[in-house]
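Incident log, support desk, overnight shift.

02:14 A customer reports that sequence design results differ from what the structure should imply. Their input is reproduced verbatim below. On-call engineer (initials T.W.) acknowledged and began investigating.
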């Protein structure tokens, strides 16, 4: 029996990279994409050598065509498509300009939609499609209106896609991480006390880890989740449960 295969967009760091490692440990052949030169270099150096690392910008449909073609050439087909690439721009609504708006939707929604469309011919019967959404799309984060909308657009497709692809026995689900300690927090430049305050506001009293999200991704990709489709799994340590 041939190894199962997975394509992960935004797979050179954070949740995507942890998911690539989790699936690889389970015997998958994995290809990951990214566009940041630094994280690409680290991924090529540190990931297992048989995980394929490809430079691709989610904004570019030509890049997406190239990734799908490489996936076809290397693997022949796909069992898992994890649409994880995404960016965040934390701005109040009055500070959002057109370029920022377009960038968020181009990466978070348009890029993931067309990757799915172009990769669909490769997905085998019984395959799994997964999206990364995030709590901001369903529970609100000040300054995150456009980012939340772009991710919410993805989430709104999940039930419809689950119905469309059910005849092919392809399942479609989403994961919505809460506060996960990845490099994105360093980009925001928050002081330690601000990070502590965020952690204190989570019922379980801490940030999540990329590895914890990856374990949920691996479960949803597996036969153990064969009867789960059209769902959004929240992984947030109880965030949003308090009034």
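02:41 Re-run completed on a clean worker. Output:
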């Amino acid at each position: 029996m041939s190894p199962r295969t997975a394509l992960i967009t935004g797979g050179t760091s954070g949740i995507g990279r942890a998911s690539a490692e989790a699936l690889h440990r389970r015997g998958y052949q994995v290809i990951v994409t990214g566009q940041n030169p630094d994280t690409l270099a680290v991924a090529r150096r540190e990931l297992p050598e048989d995980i394929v690392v490809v430079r691709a910008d989610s904004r570019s449909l030509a890049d997406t065509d190239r990734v799908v073609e490489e996936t076809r050439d290397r693997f022949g087909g796909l069992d898992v498509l994890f649409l994880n690439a995404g960016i965040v721009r934390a701005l109040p609504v009055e500070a959002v300009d057109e370029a920022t708006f377009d960038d968020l939707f181009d990466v978070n929604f348009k890029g993931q939609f067309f990757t799915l469309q172009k990769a669909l011919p490769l997905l085998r019967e019984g395959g799994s499609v997964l999206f990364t959404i995030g709590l901001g799309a369903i529970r609100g984060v000040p300054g995150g209106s456009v980012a939340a909308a772009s991710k919410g657009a993805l989430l709104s497709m999940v039930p419809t896609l689950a119905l469309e692809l059910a005849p092919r026995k392809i399942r479609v689900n989403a994961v919505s991480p809460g506060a996960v300690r990845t490099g994105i927090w360093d980009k925001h430049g928050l002081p330690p006390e601000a990070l502590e305050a965020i952690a204190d506001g989570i019922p379980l009293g801490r940030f999540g880890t990329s590895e914890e999200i990856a374990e949920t991704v691996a479960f949803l990709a597996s036969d153990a989740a064969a009867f789960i489709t059209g769902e959004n799994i929240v992984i947030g340590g109880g965030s949003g449960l308090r009034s």
